[in-house]
Amino acid sequence: MGAENFGSNQKDEIEIIEIMKKFGKYQKFQYFYVCLAAFFMTMTNINYVFVAGDLNYRCRIPECENQYAVYNATWWPNKTIDRCTRPQLKEEYVVGQSCTSESFTDAVVECTDWVYETNNTVITTLNLACQHWKSNLIGTFHNIGTLLTVVLSGWLADRILAGVLFAYAIYMGESTFAYIAMFVPYWKDLIRIIYTPPIIFISYIFLLKESPRWQILNGRTKDAKSTLLNIAKVNNININKQKLANMNDEDLKKQFKIENYEQKESFRDVLKSKVILKRVLVACFCRFTTTLIYYGLMLNSVYLPGNKYTNFSLSTVMSFPGELISMYLMNRIGRKLPIMYGYLICGLLCVASAWIPEGYVWLKISLFLFGKLLVSICFTGIITYTMELFPSSVRGTLLGVCAVASRTGSIFAPLTQILNTVSIILPSMLFGGLAIIAGALLTLMPETKDLPLMDTVGQIERSIKLREIRNDISTKGEERSDLIA
């Protein structure tokens, strides 16, 4: 009996490399941990939309105010007055006399003090009325902090965004934040609600593990063995523990087929290659544009006609179908065309939305939301596409450069709200123009669907030269056929 059990155990044993191929309980927990972090990270990332959001206010007129000034004063003049100026009282007005709408002249003077409708945002607390640059810089400085984390952590965020599960965790965070803000409008309470749960992420020091492959690549053989044993234990996999314990660094590399890891090239090699440099510049512009439009539309949705919370919520919901549509089109048609046409149509919708009169509320909102849907498609697609444009030797570095360009777009997104003080059509016109330019630039890029990933800069350059030679031969062959005919 003992011999049979021993034989059975031997039979159930799997090779060390097979540990990583089984998607079990361990992987599910790791996915859950990262998705949960992405969910809450998103809410903290966009909280300034309502925490530092605009609200109604008017100029304070001390002669007419009582002890408890209110925004909707019955004596306020019926004519339209800029929020940054105050109507001037008539000369015959006597101090202590009750003000009426007839107590004012047509003249206005600069305002220095304000009465706010509510205290729901930091605009009231910091007294930022008519200081649009300062109020919008709150979001900008918030995103500068995010950019610094990208620089420090490399391109991990892009890998997270590339997965459907992670993307949906982010979209869930955006939508959930919209509903929380709807029911908890006061900014201090809102901050407490979304910043308290992330305290649990301190436990990730112990819960979230590095990939064994990454540990092997970085010479952390002891840690890699420990992680592999943990995965086998959680997933209930039978492995030869003694064999794993006896493996050295070289044995593990051979087991995971990484003994001849990718050829190293520097950023200098990128600068020398016109082909790669062109790809980097176009990719950076597209990533910058996508993020600027994605967050810009989300932020400016609160300026659309109707309830700002509803409009913001609708703009976040449009990301959900965008992810699936992007996956379908890129697998069915290709990488380049869906993204290129996505940019172009998004740009046209943004421009059209800007010129729709305010009276056509649902038409204006519908065009705006379809534009958000299309930029969501581009948001996911351009990340996958840029990964395939670069060779393995410098892919990490160049994706890091693209990630910085992307976060730079999010830094400028809050500042687009300032354009609303000039004209409400300017943000949409800006988004439309940038999207059309991005779509046009993609015509310079190759299709990457079903093509093998290149390992070096030299391989990409040789493949392009070979393609050009084939095209020349094909063209000359057609010319000869025409002459014979």
UniProtKB/TrEMBL annotation:
GO cellular component: a single term: membrane
InterPro entries, alphabetized: MFS_sugar_transport-like
Membrane topology: Multi-pass membrane protein
Entry's transmembrane regions: 31-50, 137-157, 164-184, 190-208, 276-297, 337-356, 362-385, 397-418, 424-444
Compartments, record wording: Membrane
UniProt keywords, alphabetically: Membrane, Transmembrane, Transmembrane helix
Residue runs in coiled coils: none
Domain of life according to the entry: Eukaryota
Chief place where the protein resides: membrane
Gene Ontology molecular-function annotations: transmembrane transporter activity
Short name of any one Pfam family annotated for the protein: Sugar_tr
PANTHER family associated with the record: SOLUTE CARRIER FAMILY 22 MEMBER
Record protein name field: (apollo) hypothetical protein
Lineage: Eukaryota, Metazoa, Ecdysozoa, Arthropoda, Hexapoda
